[in-house]
Design a protein that fits this description.
- By secondary structure, the protein is mainly α.
- Helix content is 67%, strand content 0%.
- The longest helix is centred in the middle third of the chain and has 21 residues.
- The chain starts with a helix and ends with a helix.
Length: 131
C-alpha cells in the first residue's frame, strides 16, 4: 500500500514530515507537555522525546481536537524510531554481556534464535538507513 508521502519527491516529503513533527511538538508543549519531569538519562535542557509526547497526547486525548490528534499522529514515525533505537541498544548490551541468541529469543517471545537474529538484523538495517 502506497502512502501519499511515498509518492512525493525525495527530500520534499522528509522536510514536510519534519515540519509536521515540529508543529505537533510545539502544540503539545504549549498544552502542558513542557511540564513533564526531565529524565535522568537525558541531558537537560532536552525537550520531551516523541515517545513521551505521544504518551502525553494519549493521556490528554479527551482534551484534543480531531485536528490536534491528526497533528500528534505525525509523531508516530519518530516515536517508532526512538523505540527501535532503544531496542537495538538493549540487544547490543545483552549480547555484549554474553547473553545467547537462544536466551534473547526466549525473552522476546521468538520461536527460535534464528528468527530473533533475523529480526535484529532487519531492525539494525532500518536504523542504519536512518543515520
Amino acid at each position: 500500500m502506497e502512502r501519499k508521502h511515498d509518492l512525493e519527491r525525495p527530500g520534499t516529503s522528509d522536510h514536510a514530515q519534519a515540519e509536521r513533527e515540529r508543529n505537533a511538538q510545539g502544540m503539545l508543549l504549549n498544552k502542558g507537555a513542557d511540564q513533564l519531569e526531565p529524565r535522568p538519562w537525558r541531558p537537560e535542557p532536552t525537550p520531551p522525546s516523541a515517545v513521551e509526547l505521544t504518551q502525553y497526547a494519549l493521556w490528554r486525548s479527551s482534551e484534543l481536537t480531531p485536528d490536534e490528534l491528526l497533528r500528534v499522529l505525525s509523531l508516530l514515525p519518530a516515536a517508532r524510531a526512538e523505540v527501535e533505537s532503544v531496542e537495538v541498544g538493549l540487544l547490543f548490551a545483552a549480547r555484549n554481556e554474553g547473553l545467547t541468541w537462544a536466551q534473547i529469543a526466549e525473552a522476546m517471545g521468538f520461536r527460535s534464535p534464528q528468527a530473533c537474529q533475523q529480526y535484529v538484523n532487519r531492525l539494525s538495517a532500518r536504523q542504519d538507513k536512518r543515520v
